[in-house]
Design brief:
There is one protein chain. By secondary structure, the protein is mostly helical. It folds into 2 domains: 1-24 and 116-251, Alpha Horseshoe (Serine Threonine Protein Phosphatase 5, Tetratricopeptide repeat); 29-96, Serine Threonine Protein Phosphatase 5, Tetratricopeptide repeat (Alpha Horseshoe). The protein contains 14 helices and no strands. Helix 4 (64-76) runs antiparallel to helix 5, helix 6 packs antiparallel against helix 7 and helix 11 (181-192) packs antiparallel against helix 12 (199-211). The longest helix has 14 residues, at 46-59. The chain starts with 12 loop residues before the first helix and ends in a 7-residue tail after the last helix.
Length: 251
């Protein structure tokens, strides 16, 4: 449901988005140069990825996947208007290109979750088992206050890929903010306490614990990553998410 660290993860609704985790791209085959651009994006070098995509476009202006990669690069650089233009141009070349639809859906998440739902549903109409689209659809539904539908989307993704941690965490958070915090904790806790746990996962667990009224346990979890002199500030920030989470419009 990508923070208070950085991805779910975006006022009330955007606050939960700051906690929800998006999955990776749709994964269509690309030219070697676009694969390099994808690697650059994964490594946090969107400017380099943008140069590669633009070189590919200069060589072949009808390469829809290069336009998508340009959109991904602009999105990663915080330029949503340029990103949207690139995705829409890609769709003008290939009207059902899932990566372009996913890109537009993710751009719409914070400001217009209903629009985002539409884009992810377009992807799923063709790729019904696309777990990234199912997970992101769940995030959009949560942000639109459609928690039951969101939980169904996450569960569908997990039925296809039981190891999809992003969907499991998002399901836990969705349950927690919709009045089932204890169930949410049970889903997030094994991941947050496992050998591969990250500070972000522990933060998600702390949110679920706060929503379940277990403030002391949440403090203990945060203590693993937050300096003692910052602990109270971090706890208050997460408590604001708890307050936001009582609203029907919050995921």
């Amino acid at each position: 449901m990508r923070t208070i660290s950085s991805t779910i993860r975006r006022r009330a609704a955007p606050a939960l988005l700051l906690l929800l985790a998006s999955c990776g791209g749709h994964g269509l085959n690309r030219t070697p140069s676009l694969n390099v651009a994808g690697a650059a994006l994964s490594d946090g070098a969107p400017e380099f990825a943008l140069r590669i995509a633009q070189q590919q476009i200069a060589a072949n202006g009808n390469d829809a996947e290069a336009w998508v990669k340009q959109g991904d690069s602009y999105a990663a650089m915080g330029n949503p208007f340029q990103a949207a233009g690139s995705y829409r141009h890609a769709l003008s070349l290939r009207s059902r290109l899932a990566d372009a639809q996913m890109g537009l859906g993710r751009l719409a998440l914070q400001q217009n979750p209903a629009e985002a739902i539409g884009w992810f549903q377009k992807v799923l109409a063709v790729h019904k088992d696309d777990t990234a689209a199912l997970n992101d659809l769940g995030i959009a539904q949560d942000l639109a206050g459609q928690h039951i539908a969101a939980q169904a989307s996450y569960r569908q993704a997990l039925a296809i890929r039981p190891d999809l941690n992003a969907a499991q965490v998002n399901l836990g958070l969705s349950l927690a903010v919709s009045g089932h915090a204890r169930d949410g904790v049970l889903l997030i806790q094994p991941l947050a306490q496992g050998s591969g746990a990250t500070a972000r996962l522990r933060e998600d667990l702390a949110v679920a614990l706060l929503l379940d009224g277990r403030d002391a346990q949440a403090r203990d979890v945060l203590r693993q990553d937050v300096p003692a002199d910052k602990l109270d500030d971090s706890l208050r920030a997460l408590q604001r998410l708890r307050i936001a989470g009582t609203g029907a419009a919050v995921p």
